[in-house]
Specification:
By secondary structure, this protein is α+β, with helices and mostly antiparallel strands. The chain contains 4 helices and 14 strands. The strands form 4 sheets. Strands 1-4-8-9-10-11 form a 6-stranded mixed sheet. A 3-stranded mixed sheet has the order 3-2-7. Strands 12-13-14 form a 3-stranded antiparallel sheet.
């Protein structure tokens, strides 16, 4: 008697960043968000390069983090305005990342930052989908319970304020600012806070990084300006020293002394 052979089961294949949508079609909400993301990235890069000499880290700006499979796929993703993931390659198989897919990556972001453009309720929404699968999971719940991001920051430019939450145990606890009014992020060796000033022709309360000694981390333009100021100072000092030497030499000549003989 012949025995029927059961058909082999196809290997489980989950979609990766090349197969998932990279946008849900929403707009960046205002003209401040883009320069704000640039400022955060530009100023923190030297610090991250020092933390990761092998270059293994990724920064996302308004990019999707897929945390569960849904239909449509975008329903299972959140797109923080800014986030940082340590110890992962900046590209995958030589390809630019289109999104960050947790079931392919495993490593969660260390910090996510949301820029509030409304009343802040969306960023603080702790709605759980567990009791009602049809409910849209709130951002706060997703970062705290699903992705489990160690640090979550909510930045409100109109209030000139930032809230920082740290995942302790299974829940976010709101952090208390230090004596400088900043929020330390110990794994990065930096502090997060509000800086009032001008960046790309806008004077606003910007979200900025400081080192753990309270020194502002400068962006590329600021570093270039500082280096130019230092170079100008050194040139002016050299010119002053040269003029002083010339005056001294002239005085010696008036006294009948050849400065070249000294």
């Amino acid at each position: 008697m012949s025995m029927a052979i059961a058909p082999s089961q196809p290997a489980l294949s989950l979609p990766d960043h090349t197969q998932l949508p990279e946008t849900d079609g929403t707009f960046v909400k205002n003209f401040q968000e883009h320069p704000q993301s640039l400022l955060l990235t530009d100023s923190i890069r030297p610090t991250l390069d020092a933390l990761h000499p092998d270059g293994q880290y990724a920064i996302g700006q308004d990019s999707g983090i897929y945390w569960r499979l849904t239909d449509p796929p975008e329903r299972g993703a959140e797109a923080p305005d800014w986030f940082y993931v340590p110890h992962v390659p900046p590209q995958l198989d030589g390809k630019m990342r289109r999104s960050y897919v947790l079931w392919k990556e495993i490593v969660a972001p260390l910090i996510v930052i949301e820029f509030v453009s409304g009343d802040g309720s969306e960023e603080r929404d702790a709605t759980s989908p567990l009791g009602d699968p049809s409910a849209k999971a709130g951002k706060f719940w997703v970062y705290e319970q699903a992705i489990r991001v160690p640090f979550y920051a909510i930045y409100e430019v109109e209030k000139s304020a930032v809230e920082v939450y740290e995942l302790i145990g299974n829940h976010y606890q709101r952090c208390t600012p230090n004596e400088r009014g900043h929020y330390p992020i110990p794994p990065m060796g930096v502090e997060l806070g509000i800086w009032q000033g001008q960046y790309i022709n806008q004077t606003l309360p910007w979200l900025r990084w400081w080192d753990d000694q309270g020194n502002l981390l400068l962006c590329g333009d600021e570093r270039a300006t500082l280096e130019q100021q230092r170079a100008n100072f050194e040139r002016e000092r050299a010119e002053q020293e040269h003029e002083r030497a010339e005056r001294l030499a002239e005085r010696l000549r008036q006294l009948g002394v050849d400065p070249n003989d000294l």
